[in-house]
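Duplicate of #3305? Posting structure anyway:
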């Protein structure tokens, strides 16, 4: 069976890392933080949330073929 190689319309990089943030008064809380970046292509937007460990918000147009690279910088 001869298959065509996957050709994405867009490529996204997501990086996971440990971070300490002030959520409640007192000691900071250890969280897993995620940041994203559009590497190439179209039909996709990547919006990081400044000052927030949640996110990013990734919007993908229906039918868009996407390749996602996950960089795990977590100790887990």
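Output from current build:
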């Amino acid at each position: 069976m001869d298959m065509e190689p996957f050709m994405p319309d867009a490529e996204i990089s997501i990086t996971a890392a440990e971070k300490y943030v002030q959520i409640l008064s007192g000691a900071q809380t250890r969280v897993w933080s995620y940041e994203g970046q559009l590497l190439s292509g179209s039909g996709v937007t990547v919006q990081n949330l400044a000052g927030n460990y949640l996110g990013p918000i990734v919007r993908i147009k229906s039918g868009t073929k996407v390749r996602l690279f996950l960089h795990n910088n977590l100790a887990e």
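Confirmed duplicate; merging threads. The radius of gyration is 16 Å. The chain has a mean pLDDT of 92.
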